[in-house]
Design brief:
With about 170 residues, the chain is an alpha/beta fold. The protein is built from 2 helices and 10 strands; from the N terminus they run H-E-H-E-E-E-E-E-E-E-E-E. Strands 1, 2, 3, 4, 6 and 10 form a 6-stranded parallel beta sheet that branches. Strands 5-9 form a two-stranded parallel sheet. Helix 2 links the parallel strand 1 and strand 2. The radius of gyration is 21 Å and the shape is globular.
């Protein structure tokens, strides 16, 4: 009888452990968020880059973008130009996109993210990476970012956790 009870307990243990591990590791996964709208604005009929960053940061659907989970990859449409015309936030200066506060990779697919080039356009950097954030940019060109009087400042990373994977040159 003790051997039979041991086998039953072992079977229950072997079945329960994977379920417990799966339940406690929620959020450790990764999601791919597809940007379908090349607009630099918020909202709209499709998923914008601004909304995709918020969905990745919050691990929740934002605008027309699916929610992220853990480390996320945002995929931009191929060979598009996303022009940012307004300041999104003022975390440590003016920023064109939401602050990066999670682990995000942006697959650029040859696209460009730029600040509006008009003379009277607001001056802002493109990305700000917070101390708890991580940003990897791949195959993406960044243009016309400004931080105050410093032209070309496109990324500020407090934590030094911003990586530029093989990328077209920033201008």
């Amino acid at each position: 009888m003790p051997i039979k009870r041991f086998r039953v307990n072992l079977l229950i243990f072997c079945l329960a452990v994977p379920l417990i591990i799966a339940a406690t590791t929620k959020g450790a996964g990764a999601e791919t968020i597809i940007v379908t709208e090349p607009s630099g604005d918020v909202g709209g009929p499709g998923c914008t880059l601004r909304d995709a960053i918020m969905a990745a940061n919050l691990d929740a659907a934002t605008g027309s973008c699916t929610g992220g989970e853990g480390s996320d990859t945002i995929v931009l449409p191929a060979d598009q130009t996303i022009t940012l015309s307004q300041v999104d936030n003022t975390t440590r200066g003016e920023n064109g996109l939401p602050a990066i506060v999670s682990d995000i990779t942006i697959e650029g697919n040859g696209s460009i993210v730029q600040r509006l080039a008009a003379e009277d356009a607001a001056a802002f950097r493109i990305f700000y990476v917070a101390a708890d954030g991580r940003l990897t940019l791949d195959n993406l060109t960044l243009r016309l970012g400004r931080a105050g009087r410093q032209p070309g400042m496109v990324v500020e990373a407090l934590s030094r956790r911003a990586a530029l994977a093989p990328m077209l040159p920033a201008t």
